[in-house]
Amino acid sequence: IWRMIDPKNSVSYTMWKDIPVPFYMSVYFFNVLNPKEILKGEKPMVEQRGPYVYRKRCQKDNVTFHPNNTVSYKEYRRYYFEPSMSAGNESDIITIPNMLVLGAAVMMENLPFAVRLMISTTFKTFKEGPFLTKTVEELMWGYDSKLVEFLNKYLPGTLPSTGKFGLFADFNNSNTGLFTIFTGQDDIRKVHKVDSWNGLTELNYWRTPQSNMINGTAGQMWPPFMTKETTLPFYSPDACRSMELVYQRPGEMRGIPLYRYVAPKTLFANGTDYAPNEGFCPCRQSGILNVSSCRHNSPVFISHPHFFNADPVLLDTVLGLSPNEEEHGLFIDIHPQTGVPLNVSIRLQLNLYMKRVSGITETGKISEVVMPMIWFEESGYIDGPIVDTFHTNLVVLPAVMEYMQYGFIALGLATIVIAALVRHRLKVTFPRSLKSLRL
């Protein structure tokens, strides 16, 4: 199963091309309970709503093999709502900060005061307030906005999308870019590692060469023969950077041995607390990553859910959060001999940096805060016939081979002992026979 990516190997190739594991995206919203008070400068108070669960279907297309032992592909993703797995319906009403207003206000704070007044007037003209109250479906996949239509018509390129505006509008029916990865045909230790992404061997979002490196795999499989010292690097187009997980503990799933890998506390640390992350700055507190450089300069930060493993200051500025590792830590359980993940849970939170901006009256007296908006978990685990196949190939057959190996060793030893005994007997018997013949 851990062999190279090769169409001639139907098992491993099919598993790589059409991942046979069901993946789900569970989305949790931070419903704002006191929008009026926030505009007066009070602490935001939120309640978690969800999960709203979507089945994720991935398909690799345009698969092209190259002479240098690499293969290129684009992976397309689609999401389907699963009501039976969700704690509500897509018709549920949620209130969150309006990124179009509060995000734009921060982006425009250094423009001349007269321009900021004009921007505020534009918001009022299109009836865009500081908070949105919409259905889950609208917030996820997009809603009609006169302001969005105006910007796309007269200021094209201002927004990341040209259609409806939604938090995941660009995710559905989209691809993660053109990946070129190594097949492992010349070196199994390089299998699944990224050679380039969209033709790039390094990024240009960040401030240092180290931060711009495209490291590891595409995040689906890793090279085989891992040890506890091995790390789990991968490139995430959605996070605009490479990330690296570290070994936490051993375990097993249905009798299959595994290693659990988790995010180190330094993953989203700022440059002061962890010098190698200086390239991801300008930074704020540790525990949040500024992704404005790859998100049209909007003041967006990603973090672990509920600011898990983050600076306590972030937690103190918002009421209603309660981080813990079991619910909010991300992990990958992987079979170390093959590099195949058995259980995956990637959890990230989307935050908006908000503050009062003079001239833009929609911001009121908002205190400076990194405001949680949503968090989501992408998860999947091997189950059913697939795990039975894995158990047979990764546990039963190796055990049988091991016992056979010991059996052959024992048989070999027995053969040597018997041969030695026969030889000894011949040595004793043969001289006697000669003596009797002489007589």
Structure, explained:
By secondary structure, the chain is of the alpha+beta class. The protein has one domain (10-382). The chain has helices at residues 10-17, 35-39, 99-107, 113-125, 136-141, 146-154, 312-316, 325-328, 385-438; strands at residues 23-32, 46-66, 70-81, 93-97, 131-135, 174-182, 194-197, 232-236, 241-253, 256-262, 288-290, 300-303, 331-335, 340-354, 369-381. Strands 1, 2, 3, 6, 7, 8, 9, 10, 11, 12, 13, 14 and 15 form a 13-stranded antiparallel sheet that branches. The protein has a two-stranded antiparallel sheet with strand order 4-5. The longest helix is centred in the C-terminal third of the chain and has 54 residues, at 385-438. The termini are far apart. The mean pLDDT is 88.
Secondary structure layout:
Blueprint: H1 10-17, E1 23-32, H2 35-39, E2 46-66, E3 70-81, E4 93-97, H3 99-107, H4 113-125, E5 131-135, H5 136-141, H6 146-154, E6 174-182, E7 194-197, E8 232-236, E9 241-253, E10 256-262, E11 288-290, E12 300-303, H7 312-316, H8 325-328, E13 331-335, E14 340-354, E15 369-381, H9 385-438
Antiparallel strand pairs: 1-2, 1-15, 2-3, 3-6, 4-5, 6-7, 8-9, 9-10, 10-13, 11-12, 12-14, 13-14, 14-15
Keywords: Cell membrane, Disulfide bond, Glycoprotein, Membrane, Receptor, Transmembrane, Transmembrane helix
Family: Belongs to the CD36 family.
Protein name: Scavenger receptor class B member 1
